[in-house]
Specification:
This is 3-hydroxyacyl-[acyl-carrier-protein] dehydratase FabZ. The active site is at 50. It comes from Limosilactobacillus pontis. The protein is α+β, with helices and mostly antiparallel strands and 148 residues long. It is 16% helix and 43% strand. The chain contains 2 helices and 7 strands, in the order βαββαββββ. It has helices at 6-12, 59-75, and strands at residues 4-5, 24-29, 33-39, 83-95, 104-115, 118-127, 130-143.
Length: 148
């Protein structure tokens, strides 16, 4: 059973279709760690061009998916609730395997540091318990912009 649904994730972070990639949150310890899931399907719009005949999820979108899971963790912290987390830096990014349609990508995020307006996380994406991507992500947290 999901701890948070896709709709609950969208209530917390500003991402929407077609660039909201978290299907659900499996588990979370607020301010410490989160595990979330992205079900990769052939219907993803990016597969039309990346790559025809050999569909592979672009690395930048794997990082984006990790960043969205990290945003949920950061914004569930009481001091950052109802704010927006912006990706400020990517350190030590490594890609180890391809992610293809039908894969279930698990996103494992651990909070490393939290300061007044920033957070640093260790992020790992896996498929079938095999590491596909890892990175250290730095976030800048700011007040949420009013809707126009």
């Amino acid at each position: 059973m999901a701890l948070m649904t896709a709709q609950e994730v969208m209530d917390l972070i500003p991402n929407r279709y077609p660039i909201c990639y978290i299907d659900y949150v499996d588990s979370m310890v607020p301010g410490e760690s989160i595990v979330a899931t992205k079900n990769v399907t052939i219907n993803e719009s990016f597969f039309r061009g990346h790559f025809p005949g050999n569909p592979v999820m672009p690395g930048v979108l794997i990082i984006e998916t990790l960043a969205q899971a990290a945003s949920v963790l950061i914004l569930k912290s009481p001091e950052f609730y109802k704010k927006t987390a912006y990706l400020g830096a990517i350190h030590k990014g490594k890609f180890r395997r391809m992610v293809k349609p039908g894969d279930v990508m698990k996103l494992h995020i651990k909070m490393l540091k939290k300061r007044k307006q920033m957070g640093i996380v260790d992020a790992v994406a896996t498929v079938d318990d095999k590491k596909v991507c890892s990175a250290q992500l730095v976030f800048i947290v700011a007040e949420r912009q009013a809707k126009i």
